[in-house]
Amino acid sequence: MIPERLYETLPYLYVVSGSQTILWLPHWTAALSGVVLIFVGAAVWVIRTDKRRSPYGIKFKNQGGVPFWCYELQPFIYLTSGALLFNFADSFLLYPSAMILLVLGIQLWLCRICWRSHS
pLDDT tens digit string along 60-70? Predict the structure, then answer.
């Protein structure tokens, strides 16, 4: 068995290591492996938080027109897009857009972590 501390931090480690791979290694294969790491960590985090939700809590699944996985992966899509834009942008004029995407992705993810923290 994996220690609980390591088990709980695995999705975060996947996302952070994928982001760092995209940002630090300029080759497209490294970017592809970083994207895979980010979305594997995102899928693990989404499945884990979905299973831990209280059945008596507010249900958002049946509301809105956005499919479940599009809604759940939205912060990770923003984060990945910002990191890819930072690394592969040909112009410095795209850096503010990349920064906005990164900040928006991190902010959305942190908000969802706070909303879903179980007591």
Answer: 555 667 787 88
The answer to whether residue 93 sits within a structural domain is yes
Task: Provide the domain limits for residue 101.
Answer: 37-45+69-113
Task: Give me the pLDDT at residue 119, please.
Answer: 46
SS3 per-residue string spanning 67-103? CHHHHHCHHHHHHHHHHHHHHHCCCHHHHHHHHHHHH
Q: What pTM did the predictor assign?
A: 0.76
Q: Phi first, then psi: what are they for 114, rounded to 5°?
A: -65, -40
- The three-state secondary structure class of 115 is helix
27 lies in a domain?
A: no
Lowest mean pLDDT among 22-36, 50-64, 88-102: 50-64
Cα 14-16-20 angle, rounded to 5 deg: 115
Q: Tally Cβ neighbours within 10 Å of residue 54.
A: 9
